[in-house]
Write a structure and sequence with these properties.
single chain, alpha+beta, 22 helices, 27 strands, elongated
Length: about 650
């Protein structure tokens, strides 16, 4: 390391913000301080003649900080070979000042790049891209451009009979869009803001072996930023009574829940879904048998109330009748007329269940407080337990919503603690409303999931029965559902069968060959044996279109290129692509020899960094620009989609 680098490291060590507990330099913390012109950092650099001369220029008697030179120095390979530092890996609970939990009890989820936007453009499961994190404070213009509406191209209407190009979007059209889901979500806002009743996401689980390949050296931080950005773009799309459901595994569930608590706030519930029988182990080398997955449910509105199961009332429990053997003794209880029947003056007889009979309700637990009859018993009858024999019956007038003008209560039998009342079948409604359980057994559905659909999808397919269960809780026919991680197309398949509209996004390269084909199979009626209770026989339609690629096409070429392809690709990028404004052609010519000396992965990384990430896809504002070669038909479709012209 050069003397300047030694001096610089020694100076930076005087500020505890720039080094981790294990002594590793937090390069990103230094860069962020430089970007903000942090006074403490500037004082350190001014305190030594070498760094003062290197990073400051005198102009009219004033020292001007050369931020670009300083950032180049601290990000150079010679200064710090390991560019993925402890700062990038650190994640934990911290207070608003950034102090870890050990120093404060006021906690929020804190992780590297939390205030950043991750474009997240992976298109293949084996792809591990060096993504760019745009800092929201330092790069607001870049983020605005990145998230501005994008051009959609090659729209086709898919039906059971085939496909045909279209130039207009109809209000009721279902949509499957292939492309980066962050950018598609931001593009949907103009047309679909406030219209989505349910968003269901089967996200990459980030288990270490799944398809979440971004920046694996700080995988959890990247994963959280990845989802944070997409949740923020989804919230404006939700209706006031809309909900966001995210399915995940134990690997990141706790971190995700804390993040969603901060972003959304209203955690309605968590479904614990049994997906594998406890006796079935897939791999003998696992530390434990992982059989549960989680569906986190968050509502947009703090006033949202969890729906309840509606069931027809059954008569099974209504099997008791009272036979009176004497007229009893008149009394007054709580201002109501009543009569008392001692144990030898009546008989409680069990008969075949019938809506004219009574069911026995024991006065215990929540019944004592949450029902009017329970409260009446506690207030007026419980004090009489020592005055009358066990099992004394009281017939009280004017209580209940059944066919009778009275309600029977009896004191606890001998040796028992709780009394009871006899309730007739309610007449106010033929239905009862019960809360949903937070534990769901879908083992059988998961066992059969591979046969669902007309295409093969190896990883993570969800059974239609589970999606239908959730969709029927949170939506009604005609509602819009959104799936930003469409995968094999299960959400779209279920939406069609249950009469909902769908907006589905899939950014992986199998969107057309797999996702679209699965949905087309549903249109053709090839899945009638899956979710048969829906009565689906085929029909309907949806539109399929794609984001118009610009530099994203070059990024995909870089990922697929071999060593002989890269020099020519680099020259073509400079000539025809949109490269970063920080680099000039003369810079590139001067660095040709150094570029050739790099390894293949390093060459690819350099070319990806060279691309202007704000020009990955064609922006809507460039729709009419001939340079971007958008066809007249696609222009018409975009004007229809965005409501322009």
């Amino acid at each position: 390391m050069s003397p300047l680098f030694d001096t610089l490291q020694a100076l930076l060590r005087q500020d505890s913000r720039f080094f981790a507990e294990d002594g590793a330099l937090l390069r990103n913390a230094v860069c962020e301080a430089a970007e903000k012109l942090d006074p403490a950092l500037l004082r350190l650099l001014l305190s030594h003649p070498d760094t003062r001369a290197r990073f400051f220029t005198e102009a009219a008697g004033v020292l001007v900080f050369d931020k670009a030179r300083f950032l180049w120095t601290v990000t150079s390979r010679e200064f710090l070979p390991d560019s993925y530092t402890r700062f990038q890996n650190r994640i934990g609970l911290a207070d608003r000042a950034g102090h870890l939990l050990s120093a404060s009890g006021d906690t929020v989820l804190s992780f590297p790049f939390k205030d950043c936007v991750l474009e997240g453009g992976q298109t293949r499961e084996d792809q591990r891209r060096g993504e760019v994190f745009y800092n929201e404070t330092l790069a607001p213009q870049e983020i605005d451009q990145l998230l501005s509406p994008k051009v959609l191209v090659r729209p086709r209407r898919c039906t059971a009979a085939g496909e045909q190009p279209v130039t207009e979007l109809l209000p009721e059209d279902n949509l499957l869009i292939q492309g980066n889901n962050l950018l598609v979500l931001s593009s949907l806002r103009r047309r679909y803001a406030g219209r989505i009743r349910m968003a269901y996401w089967d996200v990459p689980y980030n288990t270490g072996s799944d398809s979440f390949g971004y920046n694996d050296r700080f995988s959890r931080s990247t994963w959280l930023v990845f989802l944070k950005n997409r949740v923020e773009q989804t919230l404006p799309l939700l209706a006031e009574d809309g909900v966001l459901l995210i399915q995940c595994s134990f690997h990141q569930q706790a971190y995700l829940q804390v993040l969603l608590d901060e972003l959304v706030g209203n955690h309605v519930m968590t479904f614990h879904v049994l997906v594998r029988h406890p006796d079935r182990t897939l791999a003998a080398d696992k530390a434990f048998n992982d059989v549960i997955e989680y569906v986190l449910v968050y509502a947009k509105s703090p006033r949202f109330q969890m729906p309840r199961m509606v069931r027809e009332k059954a008569v099974d429990d209504y099997c008791w009748a009272v036979e009176t053997l004497a007229p009893g003794e008149p009394v007054s209880l709580g201002g109501r007329r009543a009569r008392v029947l001692r144990p030898d003056q009546y008989r409680l007889v069990k008969r075949p269940a019938d809506k004219t009979q009574f069911k026995v309700v024991s006065v215990r637990g929540s019944i004592r407080e949450k029902t009017s009859s329970g409260r009446f018993y506690v207030k007026y009858l419980q004090p009489l337990e020592g005055q009358y024999p066990p099992r004394t019956l009281f017939q009280v007038e004017g209580i209940g919503d059944d066919a009778y003008s009275y309600r029977y209560f009896y004191l606890p039998p001998a040796g028992r603690k709780n009394g009871a009342y006899l309730q007739g079948m309610p007449t106010s409604s033929s239905q009862t409303r019960r809360p949903y359980p937070n534990f769901l057994d879908f083992v059988q559905a998961y066992n059969n999931v591979n046969r669902e659909g007309t295409v093969s999808f190896r990883n993570g397919k969800k059974p239609e029965a589970l999606i239908a269960y959730l969709m029927e809780i949170f939506t009604r026919p005609g509602d819009w559902v959104l799936d930003a991680f469409a995968g094999s197309g299960t959400t779209a398949a279920v939406a069609l069968k249950l009469g909902r509209h769908f907006l589905c996004i899939e950014q992986m390269d199998y969107a057309e060959t797999l996702t679209k084909e699965r949905i087309c199979g549903v249109l053709r009626g090839e899945e009638n044996d899956v979710l048969p209770e829906s009565g689906w026989r085929g029909g309907g339609s949806f539109l399929y279109c794609q984001l118009a690629k610009l530099n994203e096409a070059l990024a995909e070429e870089i990922a697929a290129a071999g060593p002989k392809d890269l020099p020519g690709l680099c020259r073509r990028m400079v000539k025809t692509g949109f490269i970063s404004s920080r680099v000039t052609r003369s810079d590139l010519r001067a660095a040709e020899a150094d570029f050739a000396a790099l390894s293949l992965p390093e060459q690819k990384r350099f070319l990806l960094e060279l691309l202007d990430k704000n020009q990955l896809y064609v922006n809507l504002c460039d729709l009419e620009d001939d340079e971007f070669a958008v066809s007249p038909e696609d222009r018409s479709f975009n004007r229809s989609f965005y409501g322009e012209g």
